[in-house]
Write a structure and sequence with these properties.
By secondary structure, this protein is an alpha+beta fold. It has six helices and 16 strands. The protein has an eight-stranded antiparallel beta sheet, with no helix packed on it. It has a four-stranded antiparallel beta sheet with strand order 1-8-3-4, with no helix packed on it. The longest helix is centred in the C-terminal third of the chain and has 22 residues. The radius of gyration is 25 Å and the shape is globular. The termini are far apart.
């Protein structure tokens, strides 16, 4: 489900009409995603990978924007391929205080600091590093200010501010409110946000309406099988505000726990990667034989 649909389901359960609680329900759905992530980060559905390319003589690379927890990094462009060894930051900075003194070559180790991968040795060429990681939750959004008109893949807004404050971003979904019946929605993915009053869709809008009130909605980082957990979490909070729904709160809590337990059994994985932090020292092929330049390396003669 898209975020807008999740909000509607929560309102149905908690017997809420109108839109006064929409912002609060959206905030609770965000909390639900982060709780799932922080308690059980290694969900199969959060597994992702991407390729990064090193730059000759540059020691660092930016981490993927949606990366939460690193799993492993592998060099996959030059044979022999190999997995880079992770070094804890405190050990990395202690053992290699001046990385530029070493010969540049294919990286074999990495560390993480300040949103960047720090490589050792510093690369001497463009190497492809395949990064395996777990995604973190993204900001859940719903935007529907003003009205819109659609022609093919072009959406023109009136009284809209699509671009301001990243109210709408590419990858979100668009539909007209008239094309929703509470069960089915004519969602079409947004390809680009061109201005405060213009969107481009990935394909022609599939609904029957061409103008009027609209909805732009993101979707959770978790897939559809997690929808019930998110709905139950937010609905428990909303029902807890109403004394007449206390019995429903207990029922929803039981449903939340049972659904979460099932997901843990079917979706949770334990990484087989254990960072190596103890057996690291630059080898002689890297530092050469001029050991007097590197007195901080305990293995030097």
């Amino acid at each position: 489900m898209k975020v807008y649909e999740l909000i509607q389901r929560v309102k149905d359960i908690a017997l809420i009409s109108g839109t006064d609680r929409d912002t609060a329900i959206l905030a609770n759905l965000r909390l639900a995603e982060w709780q799932l992530y922080n308690q059980y980060y290694c969900w199969r559905s959060l597994q992702a990978y991407t390729d990064l390319t090193t730059v000759a003589s540059q020691q660092y690379l930016d981490v993927p924007s949606d990366m939460g927890l690193i799993y492993s990094v592998r060099q996959t462009s030059h044979t022999p391929y190999r997995k880079l060894t992770y070094i804890a930051p405190q050990k990395f900075h202690f053992v290699v205080p001046q990385p530029t003194l070493y010969a540049e070559t294919k990286p074999t180790h990495y560390s993480l600091w300040g949103g960047k991968f720090w490589l050792f040795p510093i690369p001497n060429d463009a190497y492809t590093l395949t990064v395996y990681y777990y995604k973190r939750p993204t900001t859940l959004k719903v935007y529907s200010t003003g009205t819109a008109e659609v022609s093919g893949t072009d959406v023109t807004g009136t009284g809209t501010a699509f671009k301001d404050n990243n109210n709408v971003t590419s990858g979100m979904y668009f539909t007209f409110q008239a094309d929703t019946d509470g069960i089915s929605y004519a969602w079409t993915k947004i390809s680009s946000v061109d201005s405060n009053t213009a969107l481009t869709l990935e394909s022609s809008y599939g609904g029957a309406t061409t103008s009027g009130s609209y909805i732009c909605s993101s979707e959770p980082v978790f897939p559809a099988e997690f929808d019930l957990v998110l709905i139950y979490y937010a609905a428990i909070i909303e029902c807890g505000r109403n004394r007449e729904l206390q019995g429903m709160t207990r029922f929803l809590t039981d449903q939340y726990n049972a659904t979460l337990a099932g997901l843990i059994n079917s979706q949770l994985t334990v990484p087989d990667y254990v960072p190596e932090v103890s057996a690291f020292a630059p080898v002689e092929t890297v530092i050469g034989v001029e050991h007097h330049k590197f007195p901080f390396i305990k293995e030097n003669p």
